[in-house]
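Shape matters. Shown next:

___
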Amino acid sequence: MTRRFDIYNEMRPPMERNILTGDFYTARCWDARNQRVSEYEARLRPLPENKTKAVIDAGKLAIRKHEPIVPKLHFGFYLSSAELRDVISNRIPKEFLEHNFSSLSEEFKQDPGVQSLTILKYINSRLATLRADEDRARAEQGLPFRTEETVSMDADAVVFTIYSTKVFKEEITAQREPHWYFDYEEHCPKSHGWKPFDAEKVAGTVAPLLRSLDLRSPEMRLL
């Protein structure tokens, strides 16, 4: 029986594989993978905050029905690697950076993980300050922020899990709203055998919410 050709796992000849970088696949394999990733990212649109109840209900329904796919999402503010650098340069007070960032080596300063942790530490310090003020504490009863880093193919991107919308908008950026982001590892094409996007098979019980975002969009009508 002839083995079916699989472009998504086409490997280079043994002598052309780079063990150091882990690049074992052909250029056309990577092209096909990137095209499939783009397809998934276009369909797995972040869900807005006003869908929170529906997201939670969909997850509970999947668990009750023992569905094979229980949607995994992260709620918060997304910052790309470029935005992380911009926040460090323009939004965090110099006094705070002097004690928590400036003494690091240049290599560490360029590390998105270090940048996100610095931002995280600053946000949480502001939350602590607000909670110390009795007059404002009643309006800011949030727990500390934390980060998730698996919502995009961009491994350096970060979602700051939100407990206080007000603090993030005041201190980091007012031009961003919190959303529900699909966990990349759980919902990426690799986890689904590089198959064409299928809303039910990829997003499970959250699929109807994806359709409800923009029923007029040509892409969404294809779901």
